[in-house]
Design a protein that fits this description.
This protein has a domain at 21-201 and 263-270: Nucleic acid-binding proteins (OB fold (Dihydrolipoamide Acetyltransferase, E2P)), CATH 2.40.50. It is 2% helix and 24% strand. It has one helix at residues 209-213, and strands at 3-5, 17-19, 34-36, 61-63, 76-82, 91-96, 101-105, 115-116, 129-131, 140-142, 144-145, 152-154, 162-168, 171-175, 181-185, 189-192, 268-270. The strands form five sheets. The chain has a seven-stranded antiparallel sheet with strand order 9-16-10-13-14-15-17, with no helix packed on it. The chain has a four-stranded antiparallel sheet with strand order 7-6-5-8, with no helix packed on it. It has a two-stranded antiparallel ribbon with strand order 1-2. It starts with a strand and ends with a strand.
C-alpha cells in the first residue's frame, strides 16, 4: 500500500496525492454481485431540493458485500482485490468450493490465492471470521458485529481496527477504533486483521472538481450566511460567527448529544478521549 505525489503539470495536480492502487488486481467487478444505485440529487418526490450540497457525481453501482460471513466451515479462495466506489476500504472477491461467490471487506495483508474460512472452528488467521469467544486475547480485529447474526457494523472503513482486550462471563472487552472501550457479546463474530487501504487518510484531492465527481456540491460557510439562514450568520464585516453550532442551533465542539438514558451506556467501560 502506497501513495503517489503527482508532478504539478496542471494547477490541480500541484498538491494532489493519489493512491497507487498497487494491491488492486482487477478493475472489472463481478456482474452478479452488482446492484443499481439510484441518485436523488438531494430532491424529493416533487423535485424540490431537500438536502443541500448534494447532486451530480459519477454514476456508480453498488457492490453487494457479505457482512455476515455465514458460510461456516466452507473454505473460500481469494480471487481478486478490488476498488469499491461506495467505501474507503478495498473489497475482495471470494470463491467458495461449492461455487458461490461473495464480496467481503478486504483486510490488510490479504493475498490473491489465499484460502479463508469462517465459523467457530476456523483458525485465527488474516481474513478468517470467528466468534469473539474463539479469538486469542490481544488480537487485532475488524468488521465486528454488535449483535449476534446482525453482520459487521464496527471497524469497516479503511485502515480501522479494534483490539480484543479481555473476556469476562458472556462479554468480551473491545477497544474500539475511537479509543472507546466497550463490552460485546462473545457470540458476536469478527474478522482477523485490520481493514485494508490504510493510506486512505493521506490522499489529497488537489482540486474542487474531484468533490463534484463524488457528488458533493459547493458548501456555503455558515459565517457567510445571513442571520435568518444560520445562527452563526450576520454581523458587520467579517465577524467570527460566535459559538459554533448547527443550523438547528445544536452546539458543536464538545457538546454531548448522547442520551443520558441510552440503554447501551452500561456496555461502555471507558468513553473515548475528548
Amino acid at each position: 500500500m502506497s501513495v503517489r505525489k503527482l508532478k504539478p503539470i496542471t494547477p490541480g495536480q500541484r498538491f494532489r496525492v493519489v493512491n497507487s492502487f498497487d494491491t488492486i488486481t482487477t478493475d472489472k467487478p463481478e456482474r452478479a454481485l452488482l446492484a443499481p444505485k439510484k441518485r436523488s440529487g438531494g430532491r424529493n418526490s416533487q423535485g424540490k431540493m431537500t438536502m443541500r450540497y448534494t447532486g451530480g457525481g459519477h454514476k456508480q453501482k453498488y457492490r453487494i458485500i457479505d457482512f455476515k460471513r455465514t458460510k461456516h466451515g466452507i473454505p473460500a479462495t481469494v480471487k481478486t482485490i478490488e476498488y469499491d466506489p461506495n467505501r474507503s476500504a478495498f473489497i475482495s472477491l471470494l470463491a467458495y468450493v461449492d461455487g458461490e461467490k461473495t464480496y467481503v471487506i478486504a483486510p490488510n495483508g490479504l493475498q490473491v490465492g489465499q484460502t479463508v474460512v469462517s465459523g467457530p472452528d476456523a483458525i485465527p488467521e488474516i481474513g478468517n471470521t470467528l466468534l469473539l469467544s474463539k479469538i486469542p486475547l490481544g488480537t487485532v480485529i475488524s468488521c465486528i458485529e454488535l449483535r449476534p447474526g446482525q453482520g459487521a457494523v464496527i471497524a469497516r472503513s479503511a485502515g480501522t481496527f479494534a483490539q480484543l482486550m479481555a473476556r469476562d462471563g458472556k462479554y468480551a472487552t473491545i477497544k474500539m477504533p475511537s479509543g472507546e472501550t466497550r463490552l460485546i457479546l462473545l457470540t458476536c463474530s469478527a474478522t482477523i486483521g485490520a481493514v485494508s487501504n490504510s493510506d486512505h487518510q493521506l490522499i489529497v484531492s488537489g482540486k474542487a472538481g474531484r468533490s463534484r465527481w463524488l457528488g458533493r456540491r459547493p458548501r456555503t460557510r455558515p459565517v457567510a450566511m445571513n442571520p435568518v439562514d444560520h445562527p452563526m450568520g450576520g454581523g458587520e464585516g467579517r465577524s467570527s460567527g460566535g459559538h459554533p453550532r448547527s443550523r438547528k442551533g445544536i452546539p458543536a465542539k464538545g457538546y454531548r448529544t448522547r442520551s443520558k438514558v441510552n440503554p447501551s451506556s452500561k456496555y461502555i467501560v471507558e468513553r473515548r478521549k475528548k
